[in-house]
């Protein structure tokens, strides 16, 4: 097993392999980042090529696909299984797959759907796409990184597609929480007091996702639990939060999307109809 890229996530991946008893070779451009892993039993490669040659399976965990290609450019990939676990777009994943296979690699792209400290846990989700034969051959090894390990399909960009589709919810949700914390702080209240109510709210959101997915898949928005008009009317109150000393400008594009839906005649339809506005022909 080889891990290339030893940031916080890459180090967690290598650490999980070591904890499971897998012989693990590591490489990073800044060699000192491997020190703690070497102390735990990892082998330090001197070059990226040496790292790839050390194992039949290489996990590359760098920031972007471009970083991965740059790091592995000197390496011989012929016949090697290469798994990329980095951020990027579906188009970037397709370019990465073309580059890797043109150099003789057997390629999987993947995503870790949790934070570094959760790597190795039985409920941690990782999903992969690309060469199914590579996944089947190494699935027991890959499952060391997280017990919920899934192959999405043979198309190399599917993991990146799902990663960006799911990840699109993260920043709006976090900024919404941060805005709430800022509002409470303006009144001298602690952000911690928001937790029980925010947690219930997120649980409610989770509970309605299957309903919205059904509406979207059927394209039937005629029986709304919450209509576009309800959200449109609530925009005024949302923006009035500015009077409490909170910057609400980040919400304006979302309210503009709701306004366009109302103006297009969707006011009495489910808020899930926004999917139609977000879908380009």
From TrEMBL:
GTP-binding is among the record's keywords: no
Query: In terms of domain of life, where is this protein from?
Result: Bacteria
NADPH-dependent reductive aminase-like C-terminal domain spans which residues? 156-279
All copies of the 6-phosphogluconate dehydrogenase NADP-binding domain together span 2-153
Q: Which Pfam families match?
A: NAD_binding_2, RedAm-like_C
Going by the UniProt record, its keywords in alphabetical order are: Oxidoreductase
Q: What family does this chain come from, according to its entry?
A: Belongs to the HIBADH-related family.
Q: What is this protein called?
A: Dehydrogenase
Species, as recorded: Amycolatopsis oliviviridis
């Amino acid at each position: 097993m080889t891990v290339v890229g030893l940031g916080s996530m890459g180090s967690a991946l290598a650490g999980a392999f070591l904890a499971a008893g897998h012989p693990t070779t590591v490489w990073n451009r800044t060699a000192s980042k491997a020190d703690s892993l070497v102390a735990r039993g990892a082998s330090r490669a001197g070059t990226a090529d040496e790292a790839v040659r050390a194992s039949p399976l290489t996990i590359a965990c760098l920031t972007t696909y471009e970083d991965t290609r740059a790091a592995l450019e000197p390496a011989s990939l012929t016949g090697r299984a290469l798994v990329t676990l980095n951020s990027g777009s579906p188009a970037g994943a397709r370019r990465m797959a073309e580059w890797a296979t043109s150099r003789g690699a057997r390629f999987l792209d993947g995503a870790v759907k949790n934070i570094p400290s959760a790597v190795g846990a039985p409920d941690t989700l990782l999903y992969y796409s690309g060469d199914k034969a590579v996944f089947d051959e190494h699935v027991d090894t890959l499952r060391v990184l997280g017990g919920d390990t899934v192959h999405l399909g043979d198309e190399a960009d599917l993991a990146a597609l799902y990663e960006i589709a799911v990840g699109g919810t993260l920043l709006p949700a976090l900024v919404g929480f941060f805005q709430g914390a800022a509002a409470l702080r303006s009144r001298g209240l602690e952000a911690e007091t928001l937790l029980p109510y925010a947690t219930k709210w997120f649980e409610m959101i989770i509970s309605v996702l299957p309903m919205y997915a059904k509406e979207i898949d059927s394209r039937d928005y005629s029986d709304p639990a919450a209509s576009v008009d309800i959200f449109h009317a609530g925009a005024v109150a949302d923006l009035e939060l500015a009077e409490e000393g909170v910057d609400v400008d980040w919400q304006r594009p979302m309210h503009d999307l709701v306004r366009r839906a109302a103006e297009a005649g969707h006011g009495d339809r489910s808020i899930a109809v926004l999917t139609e506005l977000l879908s380009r022909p």
